[in-house]
Design brief:
16% of the residues are buried. This protein starts with 7 loop residues before the first helix and ends in a 5-residue tail after the last helix. The protein has one domain: 2-Layer Sandwich (Double Stranded RNA Binding Domain). The longest helix has 28 residues, at 145-172. It is flat, with a radius of gyration of 23 Å. Helices cover 34% and strands 30% of the residues. α3 (50-61) crosses α4. It has helices at residues 8-22, 33-37, 50-61, 145-172, and strands at 40-44, 74-90, 96-111, 125-139. By secondary structure, it is of the alpha+beta class.
Amino acid sequence: MKIKILDPRILTLLLSVFLLSACGFQLRGDYGLEQRLGKTSLQLANEYSDFSRKLERSLERAGVELVAVEAADSIIIISNSKFTREVLSIGNDARVREFRLRLEVGFSVVAASPPGDDEDAETRVRLKPQVLKQQRDLRFDAGRVLATSRESEFLQEEMSDTLVRQFMQRLSQMDLL
């Protein structure tokens, strides 16, 4: 009697599926923000920053309806979006060798108050003011100025992407209306 052995590719696939299901892995679903926020107004400290543009697109992709303040159920307030570059080290020739790039975003979420309602602003807070930060170190090479400049732009975009993801996760963990 011949015993038929499974194809190694099928066996590997089955083993992978078993291991992934055993560790609790799940595909990331949507954030469910439309139920948490309702109609939302977005108040940005700097509407032209990379972070602001990416945040607005992410909210729309998550199903959040962005409206004017008068029609909003919730208001997302981005109080600051600040990108800084600080010198980390200077070489013997008095030239900068390393920079630290830092992106910092402050935000809060409040429930919109109906017109004529003098409700205390503190009772309307849905997500207390918080600050998200990202930083990256960048080595400066005087022989590759354009490449270093492009790397700086790339790192700034990557930090913005990371902060938008963190922001969306914080919103998804917020209590329902």
